[in-house]
């Protein structure tokens, strides 16, 4: 099955620690995938998505220029997920391809204007249902009324699944990243110091 185009909603913070993630949406299914980012990556992506440019070219601007010299971007695809790490592939029009971080995939998409695609298997593995209330509570996203969520099958009372499974899936995903329910609600839990795993979802050797 071909990779599926997704919508990049933006960069958001979760919990009192302010863990940052980019939220992408599988439009036809009304499902979302949070991709965890380092503070530096989150800041750069957030600024670019909001149309704020630096006075001098960034490293991603340079990469985009070099890519154009080679014929331009063909596809930007997030194509694998393993043990909390997303991987992506940048493919050029001349057939050359590069293994890149998911955060760089999102940034190059913002810089070049090319859409981000995600492999169907990755979406099935990592995506979750979030209803309108969940989006407001966890990400501060107000869809502004019925019918604006891409999936079209969203239960606007709570979860798109219509049962507790969607909430359980979301809680499980947050816990896998080291974020607890009390973190999300801003409640103190003794000397909690945040997740033991890297909240970027990327291993040290990929940074």
Automatic annotation (TrEMBL):
What GO MF annotations does this protein's record show?
Answer: nuclease activity
Report which superkingdom the organism of origin falls in. Answer: Bacteria
Pfam families attached here? BFN_dom (PF02577)
Residue ranges of the region described as Disordered: 149-207
Which Gene3D superfamilies does its entry note?
A: Bifunctional nuclease domain (3.10.690.10)
**Compositionally biased region (Basic and acidic residues):** 149-160, 182-195
Protein's recorded name: Bifunctional nuclease family protein
| Protein's organism | Corynebacterium poyangense
């Amino acid at each position: 099955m071909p990779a599926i185009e997704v919508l990049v909603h933006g960069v958001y913070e979760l919990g009192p620690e302010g863990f940052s993630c980019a939220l992408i949406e599988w439009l036809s299914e009304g499902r979302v995938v949070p991709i965890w980012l380092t503070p530096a990556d989150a800041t750069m992506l957030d600024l670019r998505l909001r149309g704020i440019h630096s006075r001098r070219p960034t490293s991603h601007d340079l990469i985009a220029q070099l890519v154009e010299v080679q014929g331009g971007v063909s596809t930007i695809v997030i194509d694998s997920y393993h043990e909390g790490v997303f991987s992506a592939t940048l493919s050029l029009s001349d057939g050359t391809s590069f293994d890149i971080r998911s955060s760089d995939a999102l940034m190059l998409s913002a810089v070049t204007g090319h859409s981000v695609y995600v492999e169907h298997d990755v979406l099935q593995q990592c995506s979750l249902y979030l209803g309108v209330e969940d989006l407001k509570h966890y990400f501060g996203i107000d869809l502004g009324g019925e019918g604006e969520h891409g999936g079209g099958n969203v239960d606007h009372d709570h979860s798109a699944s219509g049962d507790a499974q969607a909430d359980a899936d979301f809680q499980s995903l947050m816990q896998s990243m080291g974020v607890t329910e009390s973190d999300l609600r801003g409640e103190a839990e003794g000397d909690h110091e945040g997740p033991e795993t890297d909240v970027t979802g990327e291993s040290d050797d990929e940074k």
